[in-house]
């Protein structure tokens, strides 16, 4: 029985993943911003498996809230086997997180960056800790633009570009962690889950949704792959992999750029430093 924490487990891919894990009898911690929704998901999961299910309130829109949630996890558990960084959003207009960051950058990436670094000591307590990052094929169009991390500096907002940037940042973070964790018992891998029928596209204009919906696959497909990455023995020594469901797993040159990964990591550390002591 493994102890697995999933961010954004109350919908889409996160929920499907939690379902398989609970069916298999694992201890699943649902890290969700909406407690009411998480409670009803827990009720569903309670019916389908024997695994223990806990809920932690996690709002990635605020670094204070992320820090608070991570402190709770640190106080409550002595180890974690798998961390699945799944929560994410697509925002159709420019918005800022509580800390002033552009929302894709703040929620999809920076919140998870802080969350992961805070929980790393618990992963190191596992016999073999695994971190899985939900990136996206969209990272191919992404760029690292520190001058636009803060929403107030953005003059021309484009949903897809800022989403892509956040997904590139997820992948760069996974790759940088891989290098930093070499020789330790923890691995870091990432994946593109496919174009999935979930709530992610809920705010897209109808015509855009129509285009996306031509390629949709059910969330159970990536969920199965995530469970494999989380638990299968053939993944024990895999570190720094990028998987892709539905399309070939191609990392952009930027995603493979170690220098870029290091500099994004360093920039991100300065943004969250006060929470690390
Ligand atoms: N669907 C796709 O085609 C696709 C393709 C490539 C990559 N991905 C990636 O896969 C991951 C899962 O997406 P999905 O398709 O399953 O989307 P989804 O159905 O919209 O689920 C997203 C989850 O993230 C949570 N979330 C959003 N904002 C949050 C915040 N501020 N704090 C905490 N949790 C928050 C949501 O919580 P609420 O229920 O409270 O909103 C929800 O549980 C994302 O990282 C996404 O970028 C998806």
From TrEMBL:
GO molecular function annotation: oxidoreductase activity
Organism: Acinetobacter stercoris
Protein name, as recorded: Fatty acyl-CoA reductase
InterPro entries (alphabetical): NAD(P)-bd_dom_sf, SDR_fam
Record-linked Pfam families: adh_short
UniProt similarity note: Belongs to the short-chain dehydrogenases/reductases (SDR) family.
Xref: Gene3D superfamilies: NAD(P)-binding Rossmann-like Domain
UniProt EC number: 1.2.1.-
Keywords linked to the UniProt accession: Oxidoreductase
